[in-house]
Design a protein that fits this description.
heterodimer; A: about 450 residues; alpha/beta; D-Maltodextrin-Binding Protein, domain 2; 2 domains; five-stranded mixed beta sheet; four-stranded mixed beta sheet; 18 helices; 11 strands; about 45% helix; globular; disordered N terminus; B: about 290 residues; mainly alpha; MetI-like fold; 13 helices; about 75% helix; transmembrane (chain B); BP-dep_ABC_trans_perm (chain B)
């Protein structure tokens, strides 16, 4: 019996040794940085700009870039390893990567909010000098609102890829049919009245689609921009909690009533994607959302209402419903390929790239809203005739440092650029969503949100 | 049990339960149909949606007159599908091989010729599954980072091997216990070595069990998402990570995602189909005593 035991342990040892040898052999054999043999290479990014690891969200403009990336690889001799992840996973991965110093990514797409927060965390490279020294890049051409959301002390820490504000989209044909007019600069009351008229004239239609899905980047983007319009806000410049102020309450009450009476069915499950869907299927008469939606709304492969849509400014009340957002390129401090990273960014956010997208994929697919010069390209002007001016005006009128009726403690229009906001916004979004579902009153929802706000503001006071 | 015997038995089974033979037969058959359709419906819908443009895929209720297109599949094959599939095949394939290579001897040592404290060892092996995987995420990440193994497919192979080993040992343990001891005693009496007993007697007899265990390990490794997401970056991403890349907060993606999901499911379906014959025997091995 004893002998068998020993023999067993011999076999176990042999098995483990064999396994270890196999592993060592395989990982040794498969480590060249050849992208054709995936999974083999490590992340030794230090080989002098030979390859660049890019992490981005899968928005249509980014997948277009993925398709055009071989052109860049050919021109520059830099291989691009592109990974696409949904927004939330991307944030987690970058946070993990930077905080552990793993340095697996050289360029990442970030939203305006992360731009501010990560810059404050000292996670991102200052790109100002590189942008200025690169003459082809023409940094002065970037729109002030974009610089506003992506800079710290006038230095750019992320370079915009495309930018957006918000505006009102409406079905021109339906409005004409029923003799309705959308004012160029509607008020929220105009929107409500028009919605009531549409409900009567077109009972089958959703009068207005508004995001209701809880989340700081979902319903709270719309609610946050409405707070600006009604004279409310999250905090004033002294960090005084304004979440249960009468103005904020009025704004949220208006939002809840509007969506309850005239909004889409199942509004608490409808975010940007659902509204885009409803609107581009011709099932909604109005939609207040990001200007970048226009690219999809006017694209025949994703929309049945191409050419039937009119555009008006973001609704206002006491002030405009301000909204500025950018999708931008950031370079984590952990990168070992700063120069190559800039070369890529300069290409992706450059003027030539816009020309390339316009010529090869179509002018409505240009990643727009970041450069003033984009709006002067004749082909672009022609293709985006319907919404170009409104988009430009909306972005130009939205100043992330001057939103709503009183000064804010941090930049941001439909959000607030503090690390605590993602949590606060999402919790408040859930409260607002509960009010929308009729589970609690707006006052109760805001009182609960006020408490979350207290926690968020504590560190800043 | 030979294949023909199994088929005969299945056939006899079906005859006995044929609808119409009993008063409630039609009801049972109706129930079976309803359940069957209920289970197949999501898959059928995925297939349906994957052959449409985004604009037609998003319509509710579905428009059955909408034109069909293979655009989505062209896009899937034109993108990062190939490396992701190869990575998944490597991670799932190699880890399954290693798991089987380790689980069979372990199961032999705990089931066939139990070592001292075999019961305790088995319990201990199972106890490693008590910890929720998410709790191990940070330590595992840090260990792989220190070893310089992040974004390396072999790191996933090692991880999946460890992840599936307890299940495999337990499964193999029960399969090996089914093998009549007398056969092995006879071989021992004839002077067969341990190696000979393992390769010539245990392995062939346990083949159905190995197939079943292997398939389950393969599926678990293939579908694993959390660690694949966190331990890989740009080159070693598996197909489950590749799948979520279609989810975007701006723009429509249902048709594209459906096509990608089907493409990614194909290897598992093939693996199941290959193992099917053995699997049926394997899964019923413990049941027929």
């Amino acid at each position: 019996m004893q002998r068998i035991h020993r023999r067993k342990s011999f076999w176990t040892t042999l098995g483990v040794a064999a396994l270890a040898t196999t592993l060592a052999a395989c990982s040794g054999a498969g480590s060249p940085s050849d992208t054709a043999s995936p999974g083999a290479g490590g992340t030794d990014g230090g080989d002098g700009g030979g390859s660049l690891n890019i992490l981005m969200v899968g928005n249509p403009q980014m997948t277009d870039l993925e398709g055009l990336a071989p052109d860049f690889e050919e021109e520059s001799g830099i291989d691009l390893n592109i990974t696409i992840l949904p927004e939330n996973e991307l944030r987690d991965r970058v946070a993990q990567d930077v905080s552990t110093g793993a340095g697996q990514y050289d360029v990442v797409t970030i939203g305006a909010y992360e731009g501010s927060v990560w810059t404050a965390n000292d996670w991102l490279h200052n790109l100002q000098d590189m942008a200025e020294q690169d003459e082809d890049f023409d940094v002065d051409d970037l729109m002030p609102a974009m610089k506003g959301v992506l800079s710290k002390d006038d230095d750019l820490y992320a370079i915009p890829f495309y930018g957006e504000s918000a505006f009102t989209m409406y079905r021109k044909d339906i409005f004409d049919e029923h003799g309705l007019t959308m004012p160029d600069e509607p008020t929220w009351e105009d929107i409500e009245q028009l919605a009531a008229q549409i409900k009567e004239a077109e009972p089958e239609m959703t009068p207005v689609c508004m995001r209701g899905l809880p989340g700081w980047g979902e319903n709270m983007a719309v609610v946050g921009s409405m707070l600006n319009a009604f004279g409310g806000g999250f905090f004033n410049a002294d960090w005084e909690n304004m979440i249960n102020s009468p103005e904020t309450t009025e704004a949220v009450q208006f939002y809840v009533d509007l969506v309850k009476n005239y909004g889409e069915e199942g509004a608490t499950n409808a975010g940007f994607t659902e509204c885009l869907n409803i609107f581009s299927q011709g099932e909604a008469a109005m939609w207040f959302d990001a200007t970048s939606a226009a690219n999809s709304v006017e694209s025949p492969t994703s929309s049945t209402v191409v050419g039937k849509v009119g555009y008006a400014d973001a609704p206002r009340q006491e002030a405009r419903s301000g909204w500025v957002w950018a999708w931008a390129w950031g370079v984590p401090k952990t990168t070992k390929n700063l120069d190559a990273a800039w070369e890529f960014i300069s290409w992706a956010s450059g003027k030539e790239y816009e020309q390339k997208v316009g010529e090869e994929l179509g002018w409505t697919r240009v990643p727009d809203g970041k450069r003033l010069s984009t709006f002067e390209i004749p082909e672009y002007q022609e293709a985006t005739e319907a919404y170009r001016d409104k988009m430009l005006a909306a972005i130009e009128q939205s100043d992330p440092n001057d939103c709503g009726t009183y000064p804010r403690p941090a930049p941001g229009c439909q959000y607030l650029a503090i690390p605590e906001f993602a949590d606060l916004g999402t919790r408040m979004g859930q409260e607002v969503s509960a009010a929308l579902a009729g589970q609690k009153s707006v006052e109760d929802a805001l009182q609960a949100s006020y408490e979350y706000g207290e926690t968020a503001a504590e560190r800043h006071r | 049990m030979s294949t023909t015997a199994a088929t005969r038995e299945r056939a006899a089974d079906t005859r006995a339960r044929q609808p119409g033979h009993s008063r409630w037969g039609w009801l049972l058959s109706l129930l079976a149909w309803v359940l069957g359709i209920l289970f197949i419906l999501p898959v059928a819908w995925t297939v349906y949606v994957s052959f449409h443009q985004e604009v037609d895929a998003a319509v509710s209720p579905p428009d059955f007159l909408a034109p069909l297109t293979t655009d989505q599949y062209e896009k899937v094959f034109g993108s990062r599908a190939r490396p992701a599939l190869i990575n998944s095949l490597m991670a799932a394939g190699f880890s399954t091989l290693f798991v089987i290579a380790l689980a069979v001897p372990a199961a032999y040592a705990t089931g066939v010729k139990p070592i001292r404290q075999a019961r305790g060892v088995l319990q201990w092996i199972l106890s490693t599954k008590f910890l929720p995987l998410i709790a191990a995420l940070v330590p595992v990440y840090v260990v792989f980072q220190r070893l310089g193994l992040l974004d390396n497919i072999w790191a996933l192979v090692v991880f999946y091997t460890g992840m599936n080993l307890p299940i495999a040992i337990w499964m193999m343990h029960s399969f090996l216990k089914e093998i009549p001891k007398d056969i092995m005693s006879a071989a021992e009496v004839d002077g067969a070595s341990l190696w000979r007993i393992l390769t010539s007697i245990v392995l062939p007899l346990a083949m159905p069990g190995i197939a079943a265990t292997g398939l389950i390990c393969f599926i678990l490794a293939w579908n694993e998402f959390m660690f694949a997401l966190n331990l890989t970056a740009t080159v070693a991403g598996t197909s489950s990570v590749y799948l979520v890349s279609f989810i975007t907060s701006e723009g429509l993606f249902i048709a594209q995602l459906s096509a990608a999901a089907l493409v990614v499911s194909i290897p598992v379906v093939i693996a199941g189909w290959v193992a099917q014959d053995k699997l049926v025997q394997g899964l019923s091995l413990g049941a027929v005593k």
